[in-house]
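REQUEST FORM: STRUCTURE PREDICTION
Request ID: SP-0412
Submitted by: Lab K.M.
Chain count: 1
Length (residues): 415
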Amino acid sequence: MAERFAALFVTMLALSTLLRAWLLVRQVRSVRAHREAVPAAFAARISLDEHRQAADYTLEKTRLALIALAAEALWLLLLTLGGWLASLASFWQRSLPDAPYLAGLMLIFSVALAGFLVDLPFSLWRTFVIEARFGFNKTTPALFLIDLVKSLLLAALFGAPLVLTALWLVDALGAHWWLGVWAVWLGFNLLLLWLYPTVIAPLFNKFVPLAEGEVKSRIEALLARCGFSPAGLFVMDGSKRSAHGNAYFPGFGAARRIVFFDTLLEKLAPSEIEAVLAHELGHFKRRHVAKRLVLMAAVSLGLLWLLGALIDEPWFYAGLGAGGTAPTTALALLLFVLVLPVFAFPLTPLFSALSRRHEFEADAFAAQQTSAADLVQALVKLYRDNAATLTPDPLYSLFHDSHPPAAARIARLTG
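STATUS: Completed
RESULT:
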């Protein structure tokens, strides 16, 4: 059984890696083929030079993604069939023989840190080469390092109690441990949603109340029409890291805030900002966040049940290169998390399709509450200023894009 599972894993890894690489190559070809012609729907608003810049920006990111994909597949093989994870698990078991929970925690953190270091060169290249080359990066090396340290400390602060609780629950609850872990996982995610706007986000950015003026007046009138009462309207200093613009709703329930990047306010007219906010309100009014939370809860419950079925199976460990190591909850959890994306990638279009459907619904809501023309103008400006490609490959978009292609959104709003 172990040999068959190992062969299945290698086959699925090869197929998923080749599929992802093929999609990336298709994206490169599509963007390159349309580089010299602005799509007709955007020709009056986006210049050929701006279109070329967006194409070149997309090509640079996609080429880097191809290299990162190869590194990711190699890293996964080394951890599993290469025996690195098994060796690391044995090391911590020998080092902490009388503290199994601590040994499990150290194993998980060690692998997480190693994976972070593998990805770090790609993150540095994206930030300080690609983003800088196209004029988007505002992050200094010092700020990058500070963000890095803060992120690692937060991961340890929140992650350690969660991991230790999960490891203890597996032993304490017996065969149905996955139900207890699922409940803790849901509670943890809700806690993060609650803490993010007031505790976590301010550690990285400065938030100030939206100033009085036309923008605030329009937004307050829109909120009154939609029956939405946020905890506050804030502007975030996104410009200290990037020239990209955005707006979002952190938190949930009565604690939900509305946050605008300062870059967004600089680029859009008041009526366009109102339309963008109406789109975000559409997600709230159509209960998209609640639906996604329910979906996340259902998927996570199913996955934990599956892990519960695998955790005591020797072939699961042996088939992934850890047959000579004493099986532990931490080892099982790591193996499961590492190989799950390999088997789940073919399902990606289903989740992407759901997300794109929600975006269309939010656009339709915005067109009802404000001006569809203002939303179109805002979207075009955002596509232009963020150098978003207007000509993605359809199959690549089917797998990877959470938002509909630009042409499809504009056609739906103007049709």
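NOTES: DSSP finds 16 helices and four strands in the chain.
Reviewed by: T.R.
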